[in-house]
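Hey all, sorry for the wall of text incoming. These are the three entities for the joint prediction.
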Amino acid sequence: MSRKPENNNGKDEVKILAFLCNWCSYAGADLAGVSRLQYPPNVVDIRVMCSGTISPYHVLKAFQMGIDGVLIAGCHIGDCHYIKGNYMTYKRFQVIRDVLEFIGIGEDRLRLEWVSAAEGEKFAEVIREFTGQVEQAGASPLRTRWEENPANRERIRKAFKPLLP
Amino acid sequence: MHNINNNNQIPQNDTLVPGTSVSSGTNASVGAVMVVGGGIGGIQASLDLVEMGYRVYLVDSGPSIGGVMGQLDKTFPTNDCSMCILSPKLVEVGSSENIELFTLSDVVGVEGEEGDFTVELRVRPRFVDPEKCTGCGICTEQCRVKVKDPYDADLKRTPLIRVPFPQAVPGVAFIDPTRCLYLLKGKCGECKEVCLADAVDFEQKERTDTLRVGSIVMAPGYRPFDARIKAEYGYGVYDNVVTSLEFERILAANGPTGGHVLRRSDGGPVRKLAFIQCVGSRDTSVGNSYCSSVCCMYATKQSLIAREHQRDIEPSIFFIDMRSYGKGFEEYYRKASREQGVRYVRCLASYAKELRPSGNILIGYTDEDGNAVEEEFDLVVLSVGIEPDAAGLAGVLGVALGEHGFVATDEFLTVKTSRPGVYACGVVEGPKDIPDTVVQASASADMASAGLGAARGELIVHVEHPPEREVVGEEPRIGAVICRCGTNIGGVVDVPAVVEYARTLPNVVFADERLYACSQDTQEWIRDIVREHGLNRLMVASCTPRTHQPLFRDTMRSAGLNKYLFEMANIREHCSWVHMNLPDEATGKSKHLVKMAVGKAALLEPLQEGVSPVTPRALVIGGGGAGMTAALRLGDAGFTTYLVEKELELGGNMRHIFRTVEGGDVGAYLEELVGKVSSHGNIELFLDSTVDVVDGYVGKFHTTLSTPGGPVEVDHGVVVVATGGVEYEPKEGEYFFGRDERVITQAELERRIHQDPGSLAGVRDVVMIQCVGSRNDENPYCSKICCTVAVKNALALKRLNPDAGVHICYRDVRTYGFAEDRYLEARERGVGFIRFDEDEPPEVKHSFGDLLLKVADRNVRGEEVSLGCDLVVLSTGVAANPDAAELGPKLKVPLSADGFFLEAHVKLRPVDFATDGVFVAGLAHYPKTIGESLTQACAAAARAESVLCKENVVTEGVVAWVDEEVCSGCRQCVRLCSYEAIDFDEERGVAVVNSALCKGCGACTAACTSGANTLLGFKQDQIYAQIEAACNPL
Amino acid sequence: MAIKDRARDIIGKEVDGVLAFRPEGGSHVPHLFNADDIDQMAGEYPAGERYPVSSIVRRLQAARPGVRLAVVVRGCDERALIELEKQGQVDMEHLVLLGLACDGELAGTCGCAQPYPSEVVQGEKVEGGLDLGMVEKLEGLPPGERLDYWLSRFAACVKCFGCRNVCPLCYCKECALDEPGLVDHGEQPPLLPVFHLIRAVDMAGRCVDCGLCEEACPIGIPLRTLYRKVGEVVESHFEYRPGRSPDKKSPLSVLGTEEDVT
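and here's what came out:
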């Protein structure tokens, strides 16, 4: 599980999961590839038909599994192949982002971007920027499940103690 | 592999069977249609024709289909990304078994007649074997000779051997022979050396193909006006004067500047940006008197997009009349001018001069106050007009050209050319935008197929597959195929290591690599490994599923497996190509992507495509021109059609129109139409009737009509909505309307001209007022036709009485297209045109019993003009039919804010609704001319026919599904469906997905907290498996 | 007029039953009264005794569709019923609400935005005021400490599912908390923090801030603070307040218009 390679200027090597809608953003990522635009290899992607099908559970699951950043990318508003699917993406994103911030995981680890099929350059730039942003934030504090870490477990037990009857 | 439409690529253990024919007949027509031109018009016509049961030969003179739309960045008025909406259609054409593509091909001869033409095609050599080429692009990297890239409007250079553009169909390379060293001198040939697929073939020769077709659709598009002819603007001399098509590429994210708005002279930024309108349009000095119809809107769009790229850009548009006449256009223009910082300058720009050394451009013009002004800009865009490019093709096909060199077509059915069996759609027939082109494309599909009913389905092939092997209950046995894609993947990713890794993954029982996973021999090999290893799932790690999934799914079927048991990992576009210098990381990422795909593959289930029977009958609502035309087209095609009209007689608004702007006899046409409809054996007429209740869905509607004889129930497969529009009624007292009988509407004037010319005998002075009830805060939209109607009636008045004084008070003269000629004629005949501002409308007064009109004429610096008049004619707009508000919810289709019906997509689905099986035509959609209405009715009929001609509606396997045991009936999913595909079963209290309507987006599933609603093929456990594989270390 | 008097007036006439409280063993329990036993109905409603009456209504109506009921509701109960009606879970047309205003003490400690229903039959209306004190306090902490705070609270979870079981808005037949792909079965404590965040995101556009979850939690996880934050998020982005925006549906349950998302 060591994730601190020497060649990364001491920064944590972060891992990012991108959910891409089939019609625009996945196509935009394809175009980035066809255009040979280079971006960091930290991101792996999951293709969904519409960004509107990405539920908050998916995002929570990814963070629970230790991902450092999650990108959701869909068609621009008005361009959705399914008319208004991305309206829901936008609304759900706002809720989940604010919850992540409040809980202390950090809103900068979740990002929503509209990327069209013609925006290969934008896709590459988004990945570069977001990777930088997540690297700045470092490895996710949830990267390892806390109960696997005895020290952490003890710390949390202690913090919990004052509330016990 | 790209040519999966090619017969000899169909796997050998499959057999071809002819489709079934709905209508029967004996004449010897040919069940195939040739479509000439692969732009959006030709593409739409081809797709429609295949859906209607005809084989299509799609011919394009270039190396790929896509046309001008493929070069556009965005489309107005929605600013949709052009490629996003076009490329799915390109893929659909490319993967259709029934569209045979002929690129680099020209029609050189035609013999025969309607129903049975023999067409001779000249096919130029591609020098690349499309059967072998995988589009991998290695040859392009080797090619040393670079030429201007026409895809980028010559703004960039590109190698001679290349795939024309990334989304091209066919997605294979070609060699531009003009400067190829090998072809010219026998030197170089490096592309051939490096091609691992052995696809480069310098020996290819031009060949001639002969094809038999039943009819021909012309869709060759246009050529832009050569801006050099307008020498006063300095195009071709000054670097910073560009054409609008060049600017479109500059704006495009995939264009030469990567979407950055930069000057051509020095690559510097642009702040002051100018558009000069009507370059090569409305200009008799260059021989183009007509209006190009689209330039006002695209200049506005380009201004907005430029500002989106760079906030500090200040666009100015130098224009004569702002012609934002289409659906949503006026609102777009208002917003641009009022809120989004686009400056509109009404003038005719006289000249452009380059300033040294800055390279800035000085534009000289006369402002509205008559002052000569010079203004400096960083970049000037010439909004070049549309010119016909049809003469050659028209000559070969033997069709007549009109006055301006566009193909001459019928006034009422605007796709009909002078030669029976040959139809025209799109700009070849006259300037128009994309939706009008798409409407004509569907309409030409309708007309082109009309005489071929007997041969419907005869030449359609569908592939018969071996029966599917039952895999439910088996342990997953996954085969993993890792593609090298020549060196595209293999040159970066350690493919053997990925194969080794794949072998360690759970459920993977076989893994190997291939040089090209998409090649023909690999498909055969896949069938072998499926058999040998008893595979029940397949995972291919190669390129993008957006283009290649259909191919592998076909292979799955031919291997006897359900095609949904297939998953792809994109290790090329999303990995090797974007991490070219990081081989280790790319290899690691490839393993991860493979692991994710395998994780999902293990959980894949076979999905069934739904089948729902079609009632081959139609319901057409509205018995006006559009409704009757749609009914007639469908009736002629052999489908029983119920035509419902709420009035006691047929005709609708058409009864109140007497002549078209070109002089066509509307009354005579209507009489013929009514006669045909009334006596048609397949049309059942319900007059004085309305639609009461509509149940069901595409293919299977059940409707209760309210008729004078009581309720009547009908079953039908489709609905065409043609409920028309109504004339805007001026408010009581608006310009003395209703209080002074000398104030009348255009419709009343037209009636008097044609039915009661005597009543106009004493009328000497007539003033017309435009935009009554249009383009204001109450009705923001433009009614599109009023300017043309006013000009038409002004000319008619002048013909009745050449001495009559006729004045038209207008805001912008919107005689788009060829109607501009009539505007010119009116001016020549002495009709006065007075321009007023929206906030300073004309005033009509009584003066000693006489009518007096006062108006500030903006054409002469706002000078007040007083006109005594015998008649004031109000050009009242077209308003939405109030019935629409009631009908919309019954049909589950939406209305726009203006109250007109709102189509599925304003650009590419102009006659469809989001709700399948329901179509729209005529004024119910938006104000339009008779020709446009009736043509749209043909288009609606074609779309309807594509449903009716099939025995069943076949639905995708990827659809939402609700587990009724788990559903609590909260109805969120019902509300979140854009397609009305989820019904609530009140009795059982659960949501039910109608898979015939579901498009498989999954917006509903994300809202279902209980997990009752899932998207098949993207089930939660499958996505969770992908997430787990993505997050866990290798 | 007191609730009990009103209940006596309408029982057997306007309604078939009255859902109210019956004294038992020194406290009160919910009971469905009919004309015969209406006299046993409690007249007072102590602050410490709250029940998810909306859930009981939902079950009663599901068992006997069309049954005419009256129910004693506090502000939070009414909000829950309003929200449940939007989700097709209760039938307000056949329901008479007997409004009970929370007293000043309860209103103060509870801290909900509106401690009274729209029509009060019994009790004095006391204006509330949403208590976001704890939310703001946590927002003042550095993110790392916030995470520690929550993880430590969540870590004590005994996975009794009391929060879910008592929640008036939790009516799903199957629950994401039982979904094996999301939350490992049999883990104790559950996967953190996903287990508790699942409920948090599901509360968006739903939670009516009744506080029963926190009351039900045997180890005092400050769930209400978490869900109040979610409520604030929904209100700030979408101007929607569950149970208090009767004419609108939750923005997360309708597609809405382009203005909603730009």
